[in-house]
């Protein structure tokens, strides 16, 4: 009965990985510090909705997405910007109450400027819902922003202190967020963060607001934040908030965690301002495969589908792990290797022979299709997977149609090549 023991099965899998895969990542991993604990903050329902292309979801859709977050084990979520208008405030109250009533393991937070007009609505949402809500109060910190706004360093410090003091007076826990942190001066960050912490902030957030950061820049910045927090002598957690203007948001998030950040932010499907935020689905897949976070990725497709439908955001076919093409091949060499693995009855092998992300981790499976780049193995696999005989004539008929096509054949086209009338 040892085969039914999860521990034994896991040990067997690890042995196979050592035997069949030479993983250079493990060697490179020895050179970097590993995070002690990883937390996730989902920004889909606030920063994600600032995308210029999304539809604003209704309350029922937001509630559904909230439950999908909980199913994934996401730790915290920005549930809205209550200072925006009364409708958003009402949604925030309802979402906070849903967390409480359904016992969801999500800690809610709300974004707002360092201004009473945004802080007081967060306090109202907390009071009306009866649920503790962290106030994520943001303030621009880079020289370019200071120049445009006419802010000096003293203004930043004074504004931070006043905002955090008001929020704490209203009974709110505070995450103090510096915007454009990745282009801010270290002495300004030290002064502003120290002042915010002394005023009562118990989280600080480093924001790559315009997607400027590189992994090494991220590491240097988080190292500074760790030093600043240590110098205050206060127990303060550090967050990282990334954008993907240079498409480095995921690796930057991993670099931030390695350097000492406690929590990283993301949005489902990477929606958000301009080209978007760190894509949550890709972040979670990488954290899982690195062994940094234990998350059930089988819930990930439903999470992404819910966000896609609620925001009218299509999932690209090429989206890693989630897209239609993620575990699909029409290439002859690839299909032949996958088919050989499948014929052994070994799904572990089939899910790794031509994939860096195991399909079964997401509740998916390998798909072999037939097109112009296919070989006979593709046709054989298609016939087998669809419960049809694999005689030479059928294979040849499919291959003839495929080689004369300029695209991957769909089921109707393959059946037509076989002379079968689809009765559907």
From TrEMBL:
Alphabetical GO biological process terms: L-leucine biosynthetic process
Record domain Pyruvate carboxyltransferase: where: 38-303
Coiled coil residues, start to end: none
Keyword Transferase listed: yes
GO MF entry, a single one: homocitrate synthase activity
This enzyme's EC code(s): 2.3.3.14
Signal peptide feature range: none
Entry keyword Electron transport: no
Species: hydrothermal vent metagenome
Enzyme class, broadest EC rank: transferase
Gene3D superfamilies in the cross-refs: Aldolase class I
Keywords assigned by UniProt, alphabetized: Acyltransferase, Transferase
InterPro entries (UniProt xref): 2-IPM_HCS-like (IPR050073), Aldolase_TIM (IPR013785), PYR_CT (IPR000891)
UniProt name for this protein: Homocitrate synthase
